[in-house]
Amino acid sequence: MISENMAKKLQHQMNREIYSGYLYLGMAAYADSTGKPGFAHWFRRQFHEELEHAERFYDYLINQGARVMMEPIEQPPQEFSSAPELFEKTLAHEKAVTGLIHDLVEAAKQEDDKATEEFLQWFVKEQIEEELTPANIIKKIDNTGRDEAGVAKIDEQLVLRK
Ligand code: FEO
Hints:
Helix content: over 70%
Bound molecules: MU-OXO-diiron
Strand content: under 5%
């Protein structure tokens, strides 16, 4: 069993993962509204990935005998200035999520909760990729010169995300 304090913290992180998904679904909607199906597709995939992250927290809490309560999900931003800005916002958001995961690891260490510390290691590693992917896409966008033709080229590549 984990402590009530730790269960609450993990439950809150589950909420943040769902928020991440909601944020990315909103970004997909923005991309769709501006005629960028590749960007929209990429963010739709990311939406699903974040829900899987949330489920990992859910499953862990259930397996630890915790009662999982749903917290409200805040409204994400919905207006953006351009398709490339979506990835700048994504990178900043993922850096913040990395900070939250690291705080949880610290909290688990302080409680000497080895099971939770071990559980969180998957997320510590995952966050490396979560930051690297948007950073690489931003580089690619920059390499195109950020003009309309370049962004359209990136849009064609993003639609290939599995
Ligand atoms: Fe669940 Fe994008 O981190």
